[in-house]
């Protein structure tokens, strides 16, 4: 394992009070965390780089949403996203196909006008955005290409994405990638009241595994 890879260990105790039961759940997660990742849309017209601040909270950053807007836009039953500061995210190269849709006036939904991939959603009045974990390149998400001959390009781990174009360095991606860092389910789960009985109401990632904060309605 590369010594540059930091591991994150999370121990969470949940006290779930429900009408007919009370359970105490403890979960411990250990996973490697990236300095940088890249991703893009399905057609390749949009490419992006995320440079995680040194103090980025990979636990709080992992979010899901089951609102109807996310379902309609992605075609999936839930959205898996990761929250970062807007300064940590930037498009690379041309992004002529970038469009934004506002299903809610104060929330931008950035997508590719050629292939339709949703890249992120972002409240206009906040300093963060939530990029879609499904658009992260397979190298980082699942470790595709590991271990031979694949490396990522990092520009350092500055918190604000400063423009010091420091010399690229290579960072080996661990076996299995960074999927758990990006989608561990320890953050917020929006619109759990839209759970589909028997389908999405028992999936650990979506909050029923005792991780994260379940949000029953709007955020
Ligand atoms: Zn595209
Ligand atoms: Zn949503």
Keywords:
219 residues; mainly beta; Metal Binding Protein, Guanine Nucleotide Exchange Factor, Chain A; eight-stranded mixed β-sheet; three-stranded antiparallel β-sheet; binds zinc ion
Outline of the structure:
With 219 residues, the chain is mainly β. Helices cover 9% and strands 39% of the residues. The chain binds zinc ion (2 copies).
Give your account of this protein's structure.
The protein is mainly beta and 219 residues long. It has a single domain (6-58, 80-186), classed as Beta Complex (Metal Binding Protein, Guanine Nucleotide Exchange Factor, Chain A), CATH 2.170.150.70. It is built from four helices and 15 strands. The protein has helices spanning 58-61, 68-74, 138-142, 179-182; strands at 6-18, 21-33, 36-40, 47-51, 62-65, 79-85, 89-92, 98-104, 107-112, 118-123, 128-132, 152-154, 169-171, 188-190, 213-214. The strands form four sheets. The chain has an eight-stranded mixed beta sheet. A three-stranded antiparallel beta sheet has the order 3-4-7, with no helix packed on it. The longest helix is centred in the first third of the chain and has 7 residues, at 68-74. The radius of gyration is 18 Å and the shape is globular. It binds zinc ion (2 copies). Residues 152-175 are annotated as: Disordered. Belongs to the Gfa family. Residues 37-163 form the CENP-V/GFA domain.
